[in-house]
Amino acid sequence: MSLKHWLLPKARFESYEDYVGHTGEHALRKAREQSPEEVIQLVLDSGLRGRGGAGFPAGVKWRTIYEHPCPTRFVVCNAAEGEPGTFKDRYLLRKNPYAAIEGMLIAAHVVRAERVFIALKASFKQEIARINEAIKEFHQAGLLGGLRFTIVEGPEEYLFGEEKGLLNVIDGPGPMPREAHYPPYELGLFATPDSPNPVLMNNVETFSHVPGIIRHGPDSFRQTGTQDTPGSIIATISGCVKRPGVYEREAGVTLKELFYEAAGGPVAGHEFKAAISGVSNGVIPADRFDTRADFASMQLIGSGLGSAGFVVFDDTIAMPSVAQAMARFLYVESCNQCTACKHGLRIASTALDELMDEQSDQSANILDRIISGAEHAPQGNRCYLPVEGAKLIPSIIKAFPSEFEELISNSTAPRSMILVPKIVDYDEANHSFTYDKLQAFKNPDWTYSVPEGVTTLPKPSELPATAPVPKSVLLFPENRDRLREMSEKSGEGIEAMVNRILTEWASQQE
Ligand SMILES: Cc1cc2nc3c(=O)[nH]c(=O)nc-3n(C[C@H](O)[C@H](O)[C@H](O)COP(=O)(O)O)c2cc1C
Ligand code: SF4
Question: Engineered SS bond to 235: which of 97, 194, 308, 351, CB 3.0-4.6 Å?
Answer without folding.
Answer: 308
